[in-house]
Amino acid sequence: MTQQTEHTPMMRQYLEIKSSYPDAILFFRLGDFYEMFLDDAVKASKILDITLTSRGKSSDGRDVPLCGIPFHSAAPYIAKLVEAGEKVAICEQVEDPKSVKGIVKREVVKVVTPGLVVDAESLKPNENNYLAAIVPAKSGIWGFACLDISTGEFKAADFPDINALISEFYCVNPREVLLPASLKDGDGLSALDGPLSERTVSFIDEWVFELDYAQRLHQTVFAAPLPPAPDGKEMSGGALAAGALLHYLRETQIGGVAAHLRPVVSYMVNSHLVLDDMSRRNLELTATIQEGKRKGSLLWLMDKTVTAMGGRKLKQWVNYPLVSVDKIKERYESIEELITSQLLRDELVALLDGVADLERLNGRISLASASAKDLVALKESLARLPKLLSCVQPLQALLLQDTIAAIDPLHDVVELISQGIVENPPFLLRDGGIIATGFNAELDELRVISREGKGFIAQLEAREKGRTGISSLKIRYNKVFGYYIEITKANLAGIPDDYIRKQTLVNAERFITPELKEYEEKVMGAEERIAELEYSLFQEIRVQVAGQTGRIARTAESVATLDVLASLASLAHGLNYCRPEIDTGDLIEIIDGRHPVVEAMHVSERFVPNDTVLDNNENQLLMITGPNMAGKSTYMRQVALIVLMAQIGSFVPASKARIGIADRIFTRIGASDNLSKGQSTFMVEMAETASILQYATPSSLVLLDEIGRGTSTFDGVSIAWAVAEFLHDARDHAARTLFATHYHELTELSVTRKGIKNFNIAVREWNDQIIFLRQIVPGGASHSYGIQVARLAGLPQEVVLRAREILKNLEHGEFTEGGEPRISGKKGRRIDVDSSQLSLFTPPDDDLRNRLKSVEVARLTPLEALNLIDELQRLV
């Protein structure tokens, strides 16, 4: 292209359209290609690893960057751009180039964004792909809404503070987030920096976040008002966020909001058991802490589902455990019946195994992005439902009956697709051969014409060879000239008078005849009409099926629920889980509890079951001591996971369990920092502990592991002691608590507080070695065995020996002159601080003498005498 002083008409059209989509890469349709220009071309060529070239010059004399991809294979390229966090605006030719002089009209028909992906290749089968919106509302309330356009799920809620919102955000894990434009440059975004990192963020005009606008949109799309919150109050922030999502859909899905999208469902933070993000990660609910992998997580263990939608539903159940005893018991009863009906369950699983992802097929059909193979997959899946319904008909559990009753075999849809679409259609609509014979009389007639026309050409060639005597005569075809007769120059003398010269070549001449031209028009017209008619008929079938999206969605929901219940039954049966007793009381009693994941990983060491009793009275806080590697953290996580599984509605790894409903589970386990915010490991530990102390209730379950270890020993012991006291004494926050610590001084708390009980992980010392028994037993550990563990880890012998010397010196300075633990003074008592340097080498004899002087021998009971002897031994 020669240099131009101004843009060509085509480039002016491109720039005008691009100006409406500045934050998207514009796929500009030119013939059989999507072309990208300027900055879009530079960016896309790097992400897609395709050649960057140029198209002439711009008005300032610079080359115009250009790259392109074939339009018929655009899906993987779009997926790659979206995976990189980009938005893609698809700009199509909306006029037939053959019938237009000049520039063909083009329009953006849809915008594909990370949160609005429907292509199967771009989605993980067992995970939702959410688009979310966040909005700060009045009185400190935060609004949150999310939708999955691939399945039609849509929900919204108000959250009382930013911390509750962030916990939900991590649970939903949206791929794209909408925010009000006012947060773009303001301080209001700082609290969301962590959650929003590595996600696509779009800022929406402020006027969109208006309640009246949200109400109008929802009424227009769903013919229903926005729902209130479950407590009957009007949603505030959640309604605004839902309205923003509907607005965004209208802007990006140019044809309108998808028909399969369901009306928004409102929910509340306390409608389910609440876990913050740290607790989810510590308990490894859906991914492991170390590697972020699914294998080794609770979800990995529990997932025996055979359908993609069942896998997604199980993940939702894991993320949102129930707090309703009645609903939990309904799940128990269903699982129990499926366990006892093993043959029926096996047949059910086999039938479910052939069901495709009805939810996402429904979504693609509704969004007009479905292929003929998608419709066939829908038909084949629905065709399995009558046999499935016959299989599960004997089941009696209430939840199973309700689920089965909601399954619609959609016989009319199966019949329509069976009659209209061939059994094995091609992948691409443009390839033709999609519509079944007998579905449309005109199409059948055109196909006959096309077949006969091609046969006529072969007959004509043979006839013309006989008529002319030219054996080398050929009838051929190309797109420019159509059909023609080609004769070499050596045979031109024998051509008939009715041959009309069409083209002269170096060694041959090309001719047509009136008869050949007539059949060409007939055949070519038939093939062109076949392609048009097949596409039109396919779209008619798709639209008819799309009219049944509500029925398909309800059936998909029920099939997914059946899959999850069968999965949980298979899990319980295969691993010998028990049905828990569940109630609203405060007692958590577990007999022979096992860690579900550790047990299933088949480690070389036999798993040792343990009992647990927790309540709000005598066993409110269990102080657990013992060495590293003994199994304190495993035991604590095991208790939390058993409670969690029970409230999911699953059977649990124990011989017997009684679970008093927990409203929240908190964990403070492990060490981490947040360097981006300037927070040390200890600061993070204290912030998480502060959150637990603020939000815990008597109905909560709290797991605290090694509180205070991130600072000096005395500071750490003091903080740990105070935290334990608070969780026992502050009745509004006195949660059922497992408190693991290496500070065995904290065992003294049980002397003054009836709700604190000491337990330790049993070990045995043998020839200066320690043997981990993995058994939790009553009583506190007198040693942490840290030096023995260090020795096992391979510390040099001289370091181990020196550590023992120093430990002995330190331990001899633990007690006051009166023989009491120094840490156990009464709250509020003034402590005189000796500012002199503490010696590591205090003579042990002095401590021993002082302790003996303080003993009133005549008043000692036998038990106190035994305890005294043990204490004196530690001073020697």
From TrEMBL:
Keyword annotations of the record: ATP-binding, DNA damage, DNA repair, DNA-binding, Nucleotide-binding
The keyword Cytoplasm is annotated on this UniProt entry: no
GO biological process: mismatch repair
Record-listed ATP binding positions: G626, P627, N628, M629, A630, G631, K632, S633
A Pfam match: MutS_IV
Gene Ontology annotations for the cellular component aspect, listed alphabetically: cytosol
Record has DNA-binding as a keyword: yes
Residues in DNA mismatch repair proteins mutS family domain copies: 700-716
GO MF terms, alphabetically ordered: ATP binding; ATP-dependent DNA damage sensor activity; damaged DNA binding; mismatched DNA binding
NCBIfam families recorded: mutS1, PRK05399.1
Function according to Swiss-Prot or TrEMBL: This protein is involved in the repair of mismatches in DNA. It is possible that it carries out the mismatch recognition step. This protein has a weak ATPase activity.
PANTHER family: DNA MISMATCH REPAIR PROTEIN MSH1, MITOCHONDRIAL, DNA MISMATCH REPAIR PROTEIN MUTS FAMILY MEMBER
UniProt record similarity statement: Belongs to the DNA mismatch repair MutS family.
Name this polypeptide is given: DNA mismatch repair protein MutS
Organism of origin: Geoanaerobacter pelophilus
